[in-house]
Amino acid sequence: MEHGSSKTLQVTLMKLSLLKYAWFVAIILFIFRSLHMADIYVISVVLPQILEEFQITYASGGAIFTATFAFSVLLYPVWGYLFDKCSRKSLISISGILWGITTWLNTLPRNFLGFFITRTLTGVDDTPPSGINSLISDYFPPKSRGKPLGLINATGAFGALIGTIVGVILGYSYGWRYLFLITGGVGILMAVIVYFSVKDIPRGSSEPELAGLKLEEGAYRINFREMFALVKKPSLLFLNLQGFFGVFPWQCLQAWIFTYMLKERLFDESQAMIIMLVWLIVMVIGNLVGGAIGDILFSKTSSGRAIVGAVDVFLSALALYVTLIWPIEDIIGFTVLGAIASFILPMAGPNVSAAVTDVTEPEVRSSADSLLRIFEFAGSSASPLIAGYLADLYGLGLGILYVSVSTWIVCGILFIVLAFVIPKDIMETRNRIRSRAEQLKKTIG
User: Fold this and answer.
1) What is the pLDDT of residues 102-131, one digit of tens each?
2) CA separation for the pair 232, 227 (Å, rounded)
3) What is the spatial distance between Cα 377 and Cα 354, in angstroms, rounded to a whole number?
């Protein structure tokens, strides 16, 4: 009896130790991705400087973002396949080195064409989310993934928070080139930290059906046939379609919201920074709450994450509309309404990431996530350019509003359809993993 109790205690302590390390990995990857997003975001903070230095229009400024996003999209399938085939921690580290080198390169040009080309090249490393999400899914079981994926999804807001602070303090004191030199150096430092602190884990390690079975790293790897079969899965199709429309507002806001506050709300850099800090802190909380709500609803119904997404995007459209039409003279009201919107906006994100892992096998999750990113950025990469064009015609606030509200409404409709489609795909995925577990047991036996 004592021997059995001792063994149970050892198993419990081992599980706690693994959970502790899993959260350590999640936090390291959160820091990596947050700083990476800060590096991506700082150009939005110093964009007024760049517009002035190179004497370009809003449309040309939007083209900078569009070209960078489009270049990233071209490389998404390559990164996704490599993340499912090779060491994920090594590839994340390599992306950090590329982040540093290309950001440094972007400081060299003295004319707009050179700046445009080198800025476009910085998109080469903007693909780690697929590998990070895949690695996280192997450290956490299905019903607990929403929270760590919510943490990773919060890197967009937290990175923008850091980027806003650093961008205003360094960018407006020393210039955007000095700022880019600093953020590029951080990329190489983070590449080293990830390489030496994060361990790879066999794909499928956290699946309940495979619990207690010894899995070898590399036992399950993607092949090209599986990669192309992803597009045939109904739930992935609707996840990808909602992503096509759902990221339009995010790209638009990332590119233009700081400039909007300076040019149309007539805030100075310090006022805009303080408001952005409030919004971004709230946005981080919104990501975490959204992931937790998704976990709760998913434990009750397999459509839970899609339901959260549908409700969230409709509320996001309403919240952003009310914020941007609020009277210019009421700064406090604008800040409060923006904070409410910032809490609502990110809640769908972690549920989309978790839903991708719910309907795919461990060895294809990076590719499935990359496929989602292709859809997201293939459409939304044009968002800053479209908003910039509309801004030249009607004003920046209306440009942001037209792009964001219209695409979120379409996104909400697609989430509703997804809620009806996804249960079948989740059940089929669990059955395939269960069958795999039975084959492993027979092999061991």
Assistant:
1) 999 999 999 999 999 999 999 888 766 778
2) 10
3) 19
Separation CA 262–CA 265 (nearest Å): 6
Encode burial over 163-177: b for 16+ CB neighbours within 10 A, e otherwise.
bbbbbbebbbeeebb
Residue 431: give its domain's CATH number: 1.20.1250.20
Measured from the Cβ of residue 378, the count of other Cβ atoms closer than 10 Å reads 18
Q: Is residue 220 part of a domain?
A: no
Least confident of 180-184, 186-190, 196-200, 429-433: 429-433
Q: What are phi and psi of 226, to 5 degrees?
A: -65, -35
Place of tokens 């060491």: 87
pTM: 0.71
Tell me whether residue 321 is in a domain.
yes
Q: Tokens 């695409």 label which residue?
A: 407
Q: What's the CA gap between 155 and 204, in Å, rounded? A: 25
Cα 404 from Cα 400, distance rounded (Å): 6
Q: Which domain holds residue 142?
A: 2-199+225-444
Rounded Cα–Cα distance for residues 88 and 82 (Å):
8
**Residue 247, both tokens:** 């990221």
Q: How many CA atoms lie within 13 A of 257 on its CB side?
A: 28
DSSP at 111: S
| Residue 354 counted as domain residue | yes
Question: Can you tell me whether residue 49 is helix, strand or coil?
Answer: helix
State CA 367 to chain mean position distance.
15
List the one residue out of 44, 110, 134 whose CA is nearest residue 361. Answer: 134
Whether the per-residue pLDDT at 293 is higher than 70: the answer is yes
Tell me, yes or no, whether 217 lies in a domain: no
Question: Helix (H, G, I), strand (E, B), or coil: what is residue 216?
Answer: coil
N-to-C CA span, the chain = 27
Cα–Cα distance, 163 to 255 (Å, whole number): 13
Cα 299 from chain centroid (whole Å) = 23
Q: Report residue 361 as tokens.
A: 């096998």
Tally of residues, the chain:
445
Structure tokens at 96: 């950090």
Count of Cβ atoms closer than 10 Å to residue 5 Cβ: 9
Number of compact structural domains in the chain: 1
How far, in Å, CA of 3 to CA of 395, rounded? Answer: 74
The pLDDT-based confidence of 243 (bands split at 50, 70, 90) is: confident
> Are 39 and 106 a contacting pair, CB within 8 Å?
no
Spell out the SS3 assignment of 123-163: HHHCCHHHHHHHHHHHHCCHHHCHHHHHHHHCHHHHHHHHH
The larger pLDDT score, comparing residue 440 to residue 203, is at 203
